[in-house]
Structures are given as C-alpha cells and as structure tokens.
Amino acid sequence: MNAGSEHDPPEIPPSIELAWGLRDRGRRGPKPGLTLDRIVKAGIKVALTEGVGALSMARVAGELGVGTMSLYRYVAAKDELLTLMVDAALAAPPAAEGESADWRSGLTRWAVGLRDAYRRHPWSLRVPISAPPLGPNNVAWLEHALRALAETPLSEQDKLSCILLISGFVRNDATLTADFAAATGGEPVMPGYGRVLGRLTDAERFPALHAAIASGALDDEDDIDAEFNFGLGRILDGIEALIRASP
Fold first, then answer.
1. For the chain, which residues score pLDDT lower than 50?
2. Do 48 and 60 form a contact (C-beta atoms < 8 A)?
3. Are 88 and 41 in contact, with CB atoms under 8 Å apart?
C-alpha cells in the first residue's frame, strides 16, 4: 500500500512553515544572527539593485557574508527564496476604511494597493507564478479581497474568480508600465504613433484604424493612472452585473 494518496494534502515547504512561524529553525546550524528574514531581505536587495536575473543562493550568501550552505538550512532552493521575496515585497494589504465600505471601493483599494506594491518592486513581476499563494502576505491579500466581497450574493467560486481576474489585470498593467519605463526611461513610448500608422496603412484596408487615427486618440499621451482606472472600472462594472444577476 502506498504511504500517501491523491487525497492527502500536499507537503508544505519548510521555509513556508518557517515564514508562518509554524516551524523552529532548529538548534543545529549557522550562527544565530542568520535568520530567514535576513536572507529574504538580502535577496530583495540584490533584486532591486542588480535585477532578479542576478539572484542566486551564492550571491545572497555573499551579501550576508556567510557560506552558501548556511542558506540551505532555511531555504531549500532558489525558487523557494523567490517565493518568499515576492511575499515580503507585497507587504501587508492596505487596511480597510471601515466595515461600512462597499465591495466596489474595497476592491478598488485592494487593486490600487497591489499595483503600488508592484511599482515599488518591479523585479517581482519577473518571477513566474508557479503555485497558488502560500506566503503570509499573499494569503492576507486574498483574505482582504474575499472580505470585500463577503456581503455580496456571489458564490465562493465566483468570488475567487473575480479576484483572479482583477489580480491578473493589475499584474499585466504593472508589467506593461515597467516594460515601457525600462525601454524609454520614462519618456513617451512613441510620440506621433497615430501619424506613423497613418503612413504605414491605408484607409481602405484599415478603415476602423484610420477612424481612430483621425480622432487623434492614438497620439494622446494617456495618463497611465487613467488607463488603469478605466480598465479596473470596466472589470468592476462586470462584477456588478454578475452580482445583480445572482440569486
């Protein structure tokens, strides 16, 4: 007989249990001055100054002035360290403004707070999402979003789907903003974009595009916050329609 089954809960990495305070580091190991928190902060420092591509267990150990093997007593692999770094970078979600806040303002505050966290740590957008949230801060963000929808008639599955939709939108918006900033140094991506397209295309083949070009919309220097607010607003409109249609 197998020791486990498909119904057994998956094993939790020891570093995640340590981050939750559910596991002691143990008596054996490196000097007491080394902690999981110090390791994660050193990793974030490397990512902020050199980029996440420069991160390695050896590089973090060098930042701390310890041997690389010392880190493995706290974190089993680089991927685990990256997970903990992203969780720490997110920090705690923004506090609610009161129990009377409606679901829409709650999710707006949540989405803006998540975007701001990504802006503070753009390197975190380069870390692939390989599993559902497990870190203390990530789970707290999920809790806050669920609380915002708690008084709605949506099913629990629909609530989770709405949160996934918003978080995906925020991450995509933050990624595009970071990419544009890296490519242009904060300058407009392509001034006169509409005029360029007008030279490359003809109105007969691209009539809808030329209507947009003629309006001047493609040459507007859009405020990135305005674009974010527009997209988020349309998503929330959809959630509102779903709520109204719910029994």
1. 1, 27, 30
2. no
3. yes
Give the mean pLDDT of the chain: 88
Q: pLDDT tens across 203-231, in order?
A: 999 999 999 889 988 877 667 888 899 99
Q: What is the DSSP letter of 108?
A: H
Q: How many other β-carbons are positioned within 10 Å of the β-carbon of residue 203?
A: 13
DSSP codes of every residue in 140-165:
HHHHHHHHHTTTSS--HHHHHHHHHH
User: CA 223, CA 234: separation in Å to the nearest integer?
Assistant: 17
Tokens encoding 31: 């000097």
Rounded Cα distance, 160 and 167, in Å: 10
N- to C-terminal Cα separation, the chain: 46
Contact present, 135 and 84 (Cβ < 8 Å): yes
Torsion of CA 127, 133, 136, 142, to 10 degrees: 120
The runs of H, that is alpha helices, within the chain are: 14-19, 36-50, 57-64, 68-71, 78-90, 103-120, 136-148, 156-184, 193-200, 207-215, 224-245
Please provide residue 243's backbone torsions phi and psi, each rounded to the nearest 5 degrees.
-65, -45
Give the SS3 label for residue 125: helix
Tokens 């974009």 -> residue? 193
pLDDT score for 59: 96
Cα 15 from Cα 20, distance rounded (Å): 9
Distance from C-alpha of 23 to C-alpha of 134, rounded to nearest angstrom:
15
